[in-house]
Amino acid sequence: MGDIKRNFHKGHVEYGLEKKHLTNNAKAEVTHFKEDKTEFYTYRAVMTGLTPGVQYHYRVGSKDSKWSDSFHFRTLPKGNDWNPKLAIYGDLGWKDDESLPFLVKEVHDNDAFDTVFHIGDFAYDLHDKDGEKGHKFMNAIEPIAARVPYMVLPGNHEKHDNFSHYEARFSMIGDRFQPNRAGPLTPRINNHFSSMNIGPAHIIMFSTEFYYYTKYGWSQIENQFRFLEQDLIQANSERSQRPWIIVMGHRPMYCLKELDEEDLEECDGTTLERPFVRTGIHMNDDKQLAVNSDWRIFYNGEIKSGLNKANPYDNPSGPIHIITGSAGNKKGHPKFNAHPKDWLAYHHLDFGYTRLTFQNRTNIILEQTSDEKNGQILDHGSKPEQVHINLGPHENEVVISWASMKKTSNPMVQYGTDKTQFKDKSNAEEFYFSLDKFYTYRALIKNLKPDTIYLGSSKEWSKTFQFKTFKSGSNWLPYIVLFGDLGWQNYESYPYLIQELPKTDIMFHVGDMAYDLHERNGEKGNDFMRSVEPMLANVFYMVCPGNHERTDNFTHYDSRFSMLGDYLNPKPNAKIIDRINNHYHSIDVGPVHIIMFSTEFYYYTQWGWEQIHYQYKWLVEDLEKANRNRIQRPWIVVMGHRALYCLRLGDKSCDNDKFERPDIREGLLYKEDGSRGPQYGLEYLFYHYGVDLEIYAHEHYYARMAPIFNHKVQKGMVNNNMYVDPMAPVQLITGSAGNREVHPTFNPDVIGKDFLVARSEDYGYSRMYFKSKLHMVFEQTSIDEGNIVVDSFEYIKTDNYPKFIHVKGAVINQDDSNLTVTVEKIPDGQTGSFMQRMNVQMNNAWNKFRCQFYTKAAIPMAKISTKNRIQQNTKNTQHKINSSSSSLNVTKSEIFFGPKRTYLLLLLPPQCFFNRTTTTTTEAPTEPPEETTIPYYYYGYNGAELMSGKVRPIHRKPGHTKISQTRRRPPFKRRKLWNRRRRRPGVIVVRNGGRRRQFQRRRPNSSPHRNRRHRSTTERGMTIIGSILRAIQSIYNRTIGRVFGSTNIKNSNIE
């Protein structure tokens, strides 16, 4: 701190953890500077006893005069196990300070940097106008220098009066080897050469100007050299703790600008080097000094490439030189040398500054910004970056994605099992994202061998990565890592996630990335993807969207990731872009079927309602298929960003009185009075289909809930252990991986509720692994406590199927084939009324299946004869179930219910028609062939339609023709077309005591705000055309199709 032409004699710093309670005080030392007409006082104070990684507030001044504004800063984390972010630049003046607004914005808005380094040339110049230029410059940089450690070294523009104006304003501590913390501060200052430790790096700042202004003496050159030598020896002895050594000086060792007469005095125009700095200078004719001679970019003009010849920055065998002197000053840009040497990799003349980001202990990223391009990053070109891999819907498919800032010709991935030779390659598809102006490349690798380590790199530029494919089938036990809400800043969990890589099979990121992907014209997304590349490029990384990905209808999110969404309807030969669905998709991981879906569709309906319907329909189909496959994969786990039950305050999507998010738990209300809702609710859907585990994020902490359904805790089946055969899905929240928003306020009313079992507000992530195929272990770590486990539980199942979907009720009958039908009256979670739930189960040595469906009609007892026949009470209609000694084939099963003249026809779900045969071995039965399913037609309605809200009553027009009760129904093959003719398409007819009720299925594309009770003339015309086309299809299939071997016309367009 400084004061102009006033001497307060007493200066202090008051500081503390809270802005209003500055409880600590540090006394300042005063230095008086006077030269000609320049006079001011500088105050320096040392704050002691600070806690690492904590934000402090402070103000400076005196009680006798006045205090400054309040500032705040964050101390650096302790030790070397963290990843700093640095801003580095030189040559920043008071006027034409092009980079200063961008630097101020990054520091204030994003807390983007841990430390700022200004490597010479300030204000242009500090002494101008009797020091007024220096005062104005220091006031201009105060928003940065008062908030972030501002480290400096001198340049040639500080040479005036032996650097005295520079010395008077800055306070670099230079007593690393002989610290005297108890003594006065002023003797400890060395603004010319000093060093410090920041995370995994040791950083040295030195003066190149000693070599050019020897009129002020020769001894400082030798003193600095001895310091450098001693410091570098010690830094190398500590390489195991801090593997990086970075040196900074003002003048580079090699010249790049076009030389004038003044430059020729310091640069060798032939070799383009500064001989004084590079090879040392001669003193007393026999003594040669060299600066940093063992750490050059190359030795005597010879380029030292890396171990990976395709990437010279992968383990390079010499230092890398960077020049960053374009922050902005009155001199503008010099002319660049017209004949640069081959050791020049890249140059640019835009104003800007450099970002240096540590990804981990072994990787750093250097980025150069352009002020002319509004802060965008330069020096990336077509180099592949942001590499990440994800699993396809089938275990032998892997998608590799990467980005580049410029178009790449013939993009591809080379891969193989031998690191020295990649025998295989896969071409990549290109996608250009115009908003953030970068290219995404995606390559699909097929037919990979199971349980095999593959290595590969994208064409010519990227380093080599590796991944291991899954073991084949479902009889293996995966190790899964899960987390949500991981940002680019404050990503506390990332170093520990890196440590999990050797044993991790797959990672799931449950929404909210980078905070946010679109910020700084997409550069925040680039920074995030670059920083986590060492993790994402070596293990399968699966994602779903959160609320922070919503910008521009999730386009920034969609442009970066490549989740394949064709698990239900595989399209192996289609383009990758046509197979991607980054919002809802599913995969199989060992004994687990994992579904990722979007909760954000429910909250950002300005981009449409249809996606809610399509996702819900997909969820129903995927869950039905997963339940048919429970023998192989007994676990179903779903993941979405926002939890059904919320525990935090300050979230508009929460009902804090009920601790729920009603839009996703119960469903959306299309009208305020609820006349057309709720619909598409998720809690009942997941409960109905027996989901075992629901994993969410969004709330920046960890929480474990008891098995819960409809706000009621459901105990387990064994000794009241809630996690042994629980009677409802178990819900978890894991959103504390680390981001700039830190932790929200926990709802105090939730504490003590029976459904909340455990919680932690520490940073951390989750792990899920298995002791056996039916025994899962779930753990939550705490980064704050040193990555220890703070919560864990074991989820045990005694059967492949969850107990809460095993319907209990009256067993109607059980014949020799173990066919069991049970009935239960249950509440309808969608409408609040009651429904009948029916369970049909076949269980014998050759066949196992379980089917469920629902109806609101009264269901009297059905008769099941001991001769494997299901009979209608009043009619002599029989449907046989054929069995033999080796297999059981359910060809068709229709159940008729109701008294005389009343019937309700229900067709069982498709899984009831599968021919599931197995041998006497313990191997699970294979999935039945698709052609064994029976076509779907019905007069009733199934559970899926009830839950989705697509069935609703409509009024019949007066005089509408009634359906004849005596008309004979045609044979089975013609019945579908007959049904179309005898009733309006899309209408379901239910007879009840001679009266007819009609229900109309809601069209998916219809507006949710319109209630169409009657169809227009155009709609009726389209219906007639559709009927004619279906009739043509039926005739073709029975005649011409049989002759030419084709028995079906695709009718997707007809529907």
Task: Give an account of the 3D structure.
The protein is globular and about 105 Å long. It starts with a strand and ends in a 12-residue tail after the last helix. The chain has 18 helices and 64 strands. It has a seven-stranded antiparallel sheet. A seven-stranded mixed sheet has the order 35-36-37-40-46-41-47, with helices on one face. It has a six-stranded mixed sheet with strand order 12-10-8-20-21-22, covered by helices on one side. The longest helix has 22 residues, at 1017-1038. The model is unreliable at 281-300, 806-819, 825-836, 844-849, 853-1014 and 1044-1055 (pLDDT under 50). The protein has 1055 residues and is α+β, with helices and mostly antiparallel strands. It catalyses: a phosphate monoester + H2O = an alcohol + phosphate. It holds the Pfam family Metallophos. This is Purple acid phosphatase. It is an enzyme of class 3 (hydrolase). Belongs to the metallophosphoesterase superfamily. Purple acid phosphatase family.
